[in-house]
Here is the input.
Amino acid sequence: MKWMHALFAALLGSLCAVVQASTPDELIGPLQSRWAEIKYREPADRQAELYRTLAQQARKLVEANPNVPEVLIWEGIVLSSEAGARGGLGALSLAKEARDRLDAALKMNERALDGSAWTSLATLYAKVPGWPLGFGDEARAEEYFRKSLAINPAGIDPNFFYGEYLAERGRTREARTHLDAALKAAPRPGRELADDGRRKEARTLLEKLGKDAK
Here is the structure.
């Protein structure tokens, strides 16, 4: 009978390992890492197709974990990144898919990933063309940026994207404040490549704002 006890213990250990590997952070970790590699290490002309592959992987993860808002958020992020990489009117359907995923995640938990769904939705509403071509809406973008910052006031992403939004609309002083905050944001464990890339983007935009002011 000892072999049965050993087998039971091994099966129990495997089950515990599966459960432990199903935490939201562990589920989305590979998506986050691959997204950062595509964004900051791959040439621009390859990114759209690489995001497409990653979006397909994210969809499978969502289907296997339908009640995990963090996974939905990351599917939305990847889809919006693909839309940005493709550009043009053909990207609108991807942007709408991204919006739908992020809206669904908000209904589950609007504070998941420190309010990242608000940040990503705000960026979509800021960048997508308005009616009649798309769903872009500056008022809604502003509202959602403020919601994301209310949840995560010192975060690198909400401050960077809101700073970018403000800079594009000539609100230079406010933009500098948020871009500076992005540079001062605490490091995110396991997100070193993403953090480094985002800081470089913030510095580049701050330098441009400085030149524009002269």
About this structure: Residues 1-21 have pLDDT under 50 and may be disordered. The chain is about 80% helix and 0% strand. The first helix runs from residue 2 to 20. Residues 157 and 185 are 9 Å apart (CA to CA).
